[in-house]
Amino acid sequence: MILTQCPVCAAPLPDLTAKQCSRCKTRYCGPACQKKHWEEGGHANLCKKIKKGGGAEQYHANKKYAEAVGAATMACAEDTKGQTCYICTQALHWKTKEGLVRMCACRGTAGFVHVSCLAEQAKILMDEAEENRLSEEVFNERWVRWHSCSLCEQRHHGVVECALGWACWKTYVGRPERDRLRVMAMSVLGNGLLTAGHHEDALAVKEVELSMQQRICVDEEDRLVAQANLAGTYLQVGRKEQASRMLRDVYSGTLRLHGEEHRETLRAAVCYASSSISLQRFEEAKLLMRKAIPVARRVVDESDILMLTMRLNYAMALCNEPSATLDGLREAVATLEELERTGRRVLGGSHPTTKGIEGELRNARAALAAREGDLCEALEAI
């Protein structure tokens, strides 16, 4: 995670005005911990090294990035044997000597790449956007390169998204706190940590992100995105009621800000429905998805991952409620079978969304078989 705790006593650091080393910028909760770290914690030996690395935050980000790239290349090692990077055309990166990764929707021989090449590509695109003051639409289109594949246009996932999150953060961490790209980079990092399963680290980052946005008074749209990200992390760590309340507020705020026919509103509806399902409020989730899916069909394609997730939520609500009817279970199975085919075609069989659909399809088929078996027994008894 980013540096949010005192390195001596682990107390939360208030903000960027906390007591810090004048040379390397390592922050402390107070003078006593700073003195103790220098005298007993080995800071005297590390201070010059940290300063040379760009200061405490930059040094930490560089270190975590290297660790994340190592984890990503190791996880992809079997899949990438004998392949080359589609950006630099080499098997090993010329500078870092890192191996290849691929965790997106590309298949066959497409999509193999170095994390460092992806990061350099994204940085160049954003530097051009800033220097030439390109439009907001182009700016946002280029920013997605920090988390999405330029070939299949789908998000990277797992440890690759986590490595890209650290790459993004280390690129912009040295900017002022109010800098737009620094704020956005923190969000990319938090999402990457979450998708890689580092839930507690993601929670720490997202809490800092929301606190920072409230302190520097960002616009309502950015604040709602930060709230939604934090609520999604609350779901992952089991704080379901808190997540549901926050996601309800995000949905109503996004609906008021953008209207119903907007991707962010639809995304907020999906997240709110997911929290309702996690709390076994299936009827609430069904009503929300029945309202949102027809609207989504006017905004996105049937194969869009947002549409897949909405219909998955609806099918889950249908088959998981205790009072599920036979017709409801059959509808859920039919929906999930269609989603599985679309997921495999668009995202590939290894994508987390496709795997989630397949898992729910197995559960729905089992529930339907059990219910049909009960019906047969009842008919035989009659």
General description of the model:
It contains 15 helices and 2 strands. It has 382 residues and is mainly α. It folds into 4 domains: 1-52; 54-216, no CATH class; 219-299, Alpha Horseshoe (Serine Threonine Protein Phosphatase 5, Tetratricopeptide repeat); 323-382. A hairpin with a 6-residue loop joins strand 1 (19-20) and strand 2 (27-28). The longest helix is centred in the last third of the chain and has 30 residues, at 352-381. The chain is globular. The mean pLDDT is 89.
SSE diagram, text form:
Blueprint lengths: L18 E2 L6 E2 L2 H10 L2 H10 L3 H20 L39 H17 L4 H8 L14 H15 L7 H16 L3 H18 L3 H17 L3 H19 L4 H16 L3 H15 L8 H16 L5 H21 L5 H30 L1
Antiparallel strand pairs: 1-2
How would you concisely characterize the structure shown here?
With 382 residues, the protein is mainly α. The protein has helices spanning 31-40, 43-52, 56-75, 115-131, 136-143, 158-172, 180-195, 199-216, 220-236, 240-258, 263-278, 282-296, 305-320, 326-346, 352-381; strands at 19-20, 27-28.
